Amino acid sequence: MLDKNIQLAAQWIKTAQHTIVFTGAGISVESGIPPFRGEGGLWNNYNPQCVELGYFTRNPKTSWPILKEIFYDFMGKAHPNPAHIALAKLEKTGHIKWLITQNIDALHQSAGTKNISEYHGTIDTLHCRLCLKQIQATDLKWKPFPPVCFDCGGPLKPDFVFFGEMIPVKTMETSLGHAQIADLIIVIGSTGEVMPAAMLPGVVKHNGGRVIEINIEPSNYTENLSDCFLKGKASEILQRLTNAVLNE
Ligand code: NAD
């Protein structure tokens, strides 16, 4: 059954005009990054209030050690896995036109993907909350700690979206624009629970497009939205799917 469905999905990818991809935390699990919630989730071991905007603003000295440990010492050292690499390959061959990720780990870009919206921002950069200077995370020396702006000494905030913060308007509009013209979306490793990102596959479906889903277990999308559910690990399924699309 899986083989048949992979062939069907490959056929849709070969004939679609504007295929987009929507990824969630599941695609990075095989890079060693656990999801936030559920079994083995990061929030079982850490208090998520460190990424609430109000708490972070009032308590930088409590929040920053946790942020540094999770997002820079740990997530920042992860490498792309074969799933990220397969998607970059399909972009290069012209089969994928745009990728929208909910992830902040920047692993799609490390794998070579260029056409991307990072819906929830990135760990790669930070900005000064006073003068708005943008700083590369790789330039941080962590002294003083919490880190401050190199120019004005103002407090820094990572460029990923905190709880209580808006999604940047440009990112929302670009993502929605691609979802509105897409005739195929491949949803990978997302429960479909985090709004407003979770509504994007529904926009494609509403406009007559097809939905391929890859996940190790059914999600909010599987029953109501997915036209083809490929059950399995993202790396394994995407390598097989890519081979089928490229006849390798
Ligand atoms: P989620 O954590 O709610 O769900 C993860 C999904 O991935 C589940 O449906 C699970 O069944 C599936 N999954 C787990 N392992 C998989 C694998 N090997 N192959 C395929 N699927 C697999 O994820 P979400 O829907 O993205 O929502 C969580 C929010 O937290 C998002 O905003 C997400 O970006 C963010 N987050 C990001 C990272 C990261 O940047 N790597 C990590 C954790 C959470």
Which tags fit this structure?
248 residues, alpha/beta, Rossmann fold, SIR2/SIRT2 'Small Domain', 2 domains, six-stranded parallel sheet, three-stranded antiparallel sheet, 17% strand, elongated, binds nicotinamide-adenine-dinucleotide
Query: What ligand molecules are bound, each kind once?
Result: nicotinamide-adenine-dinucleotide
End-to-end C-alpha gap: 20 Å
Secondary-structure class: alpha/beta
Coarse morphology: elongated
Tally of separate domains:
2
Give structural notes.
The protein has 248 residues and is of the alpha/beta class. The chain folds into two domains: 1-31 and 80-120 and 167-248, TPP-binding domain (Rossmann fold, 3-Layer(aba) Sandwich); 34-77 and 121-160, SIR2/SIRT2 'Small Domain', CATH 3.30.1600. The protein contains eight helices and nine strands. It has helices at residues 2-15, 53-58, 60-74, 82-92, 107-111, 169-181, 200-206, 234-246; strands at residues 19-23, 98-101, 116-118, 121-128, 134-136, 156-160, 184-188, 210-215, 228-231. A six-stranded parallel beta sheet has the order 3-2-1-7-8-9, sandwiched between helices. A three-stranded antiparallel beta sheet has the order 5-4-6, with no helix packed on it. The longest helix has 15 residues, at 60-74. The radius of gyration is 19 Å and the shape is elongated. The protein starts with a helix and ends with a helix. The model has no long low-confidence stretch (mean pLDDT 95). It binds nicotinamide-adenine-dinucleotide (NAD). The site of nicotinamide-adenine-dinucleotide (NAD) has 27 residues, from strand 8.
